[in-house]
Design goal:
The chain is built from 19 helices and 17 strands. By secondary structure, it is of the alpha+beta class. Among the domains are: about 1-45, no CATH class; about 95-280 and about 425-475, no CATH class; about 325-405. The protein has an 8-stranded mixed β-sheet with strand order 7-6-5-8-9-14-11-10, with helices on both faces. The radius of gyration is 32 Å and the shape is elongated. The two termini are about 65 Å apart.
Length: about 550
């Protein structure tokens, strides 16, 4: 029976066999027989490599062009290009957030965007970012010209100069300038070397001794979106950073009613008094301050047993109080554990005195009392000496006095009840945890701000800004992928397996195709709201390091 071939095509599908997924590739054709269109399989190509499959798919898609090229004796070559899935995804999200627009379309703006994307993909130095550009399709996706690590260091200077403009543009794209509430917190980050212009010894929150540091202030919206970051000299105390951020909020992120939410160690009496007129604040007070208010009769202990209670003090100041039972239980357990430690030491000291008749009792006693001070239990735990026996006695009345405020905290604000209810004040202060989460992400989990290797103040500020912008991208992807039960790093690692295919015609790069992604990658792209382009433009750029890496950095 006669039939007419209509079209030949590649049919790819995924099948499940005994719990394992297999990808099947069939070469098929459609034909007309008896006035009906039918289909049949010509060959099973499942054993072919991904590159071979893509070459066949490309040939079928452009069979007329390839036929003419063959007749003209023009060579067509296909080879694997760079990883493109992660770069395309982060670039798309950066455009959606307004980050790409804020950085601009110049070579410097694109270099800055690559530093941000490289930080999100695989954390490391400028040298590492150059190396990554050779693996990922950075030049093709971002339209970059050639560069090396020196160009990236100089780009940090460019970022530092334009930081204010970049932050202003990003804030404008948020679309929530009227919220009027900003979260602010401070951290520190240590540096390698001794010649950084901002480095100094100070209160080290990293727990790293013998390292100079810088102090970093992060300003976020009420929803925890970072909008501004500031770098201070390492000796700067937390309250001293507030004035700069208040000025920034007032001048750059203005509104009719602005409220700054800060930790108790930051928004103290002098900082609150210095706030501009019309500025609201939400902060907590210290335990000694709570004790003073209880002793003065303004606060009653019964209020802490309510879900959320408030007291209006003279001058329009409000105190929102609550007891956290989980925190109270943690403190009680901690004291019991410390008491066990001291009593075990008393037993060991008694045994030592019994076996060493010349050992002095007062020496062992002083050691135990010093331990009690280090454990901060000397107010209610007393070392008692009876002959050559030592023991630890608990003063129950003193212990009850110390423990009466366990889990109790008080938040103070000048916002009226009409502006914010007691529950709202409580919830907004609790939102400071969003800033702390941001610090953890930028410093240790994924983005690795520390240690900092640059020396110039401008490059230090540029580096910190890059990390903040990378955090914004990671934060947004975490939100979009929250239902997928994976980390952002896991998702980016999967996307990085998607590589382009370079098409070269007679030795000249023509274009780069993007193969059809796997189902897992398609799910990531859909959740991120990203549509892949059909192809990438060919680019001949030089991206190379000036020095060789001694060892590949470990990925986290």
């Amino acid at each position: 029976m006669l039939y007419d071939v209509l079209i030949m095509y590649l049919d790819s599908s995924t099948v499940q066999r005994k719990g394992t997924s297999y990808t099947r590739h069939l070469l098929r054709e459609s034909y007309r027989e008896g006035g009906k269109v039918k289909h049949r399989t010509i060959a099973n190509l499942s054993g072919c490599s991904a590159a071979e499959i893509e070459a066949i798919r490309l040939a079928l898609r452009h069979k007329h062009e390839l036929a003419s090229l063959t007749s003209a004796h023009i060579a067509v070559e296909l080879e694997q290009g760079g990883s493109c899935g992660a770069v395309l995804t982060l670039y798309a999200v950066a455009k959606q957030l307004g980050l790409a627009k804020a950085l601009g379309g110049t070579q410097q703006g694109r270099l800055a965007l690559w530093q941000v994307i490289a930080r999100a993909i695989d954390q490391g130095s400028r040298l590492s970012a150059v190396r990554l550009a050779g693996v990922h399709a950075a030049a093709e996706v971002l339209g970059l010209a050639g560069f090396d690590e020196d160009d990236l260091y100089a780009n940090l200077d460019w970022l530092a100069v334009r930081q204010r403009c970049i932050e202003d543009r990003l804030f404008a794209d948020l679309g929530e300038p009227g919220s009027g509430l900003y979260l602010y917190d401070v951290t520190s980050s240590y540096l390698e070397g001794e010649h950084n212009e901002l480095a100094a010894f100070g209160y080290n929150r990293d727990g790293t001794r013998g390292k100079r540091q810088i102090v970093i202030g992060l300003l976020c919206t009420g929803g925890g979106v970072p909008i501004s970051i500031e770098v201070f000299r390492g000796t700067t105390q937390d309250p001293q950073t507030v004035a700069a951020q208040v000025r920034k909020v007032a001048e750059r992120f203005g509104g009719l009613r602005l409220t700054l939410v800060g930790d108790r160690g930051m928004l103290r009496g002098p900082q609150i008094a210095a706030l501009p007129e019309g500025f609201g604040y939400i902060t907590a007070i210290t335990k000694p301050q709570i004790e003073a208010l209880v002793a003065g009769g303004l606060l009653q202990m019964s209020l802490f047993d309510e879900e959320v209670s408030e007291v209006l003090a003279p001058g329009g100041v409000r105190y929102v109080v609550r007891r956290n039972p989980v925190r109270a239980a943690e403190l009680a357990w901690s004291r019991a554990d410390k008491l066990k430690v001291l009593r075990r030491m008393a037993e060991e000291a008694t045994a030592y005195l019994a076996s060493h008749r010349r050992a002095r009792v007062e020496v062992q006693q002083r050691a135990l009392e010093a331990k009690a001070v280090r454990l901060k239990i000397q107010a209610w735990a007393t070392v008692v000496v009876k002959g050559r026996e030592l023991s630890c006695v608990t003063d129950e009345a003193a212990l009850a006095e110390v423990a009466k405020l366990d889990g109790c905290y008080a938040i103070t604000t000048n916002l009226s009840p009409a502006e914010a209810s007691a529950q709202t004040v409580h919830d907004r202060y609790r939102d400071l945890a969003l800033v702390e989460q941001g610090f953890r992400t930028t410093k240790t989990v994924g983005l690795e701000m520390r240690p900092i290797h640059v020396r110039l103040a401008s490059r230090t500020r540029g580096h910190v800004l890059v990390v903040m912008l990378a955090y914004r991208l990671v934060q947004e992807l975490a939100r979009r992928w929250a239902h997928l039960n994976l980390t952002v790093q896991e998702g980016l690692d999967q996307l990085a397996t998607l590589a382009s295919q370079k098409v070269t015609v007679q030795g000249t790069p023509a274009y780069q195709t993007i193969p059809r992604p796997s189902p897992a990658i398609r799910e990531l792209l859909a959740a991120a709201g990203v549509t892949l382009p059909a192809a990438l433009p060919p680019r001949r750029v030089t991206v190379a390091t000036k020095k060789k890496l001694q060892s590949r950095r470990r990925s986290h």
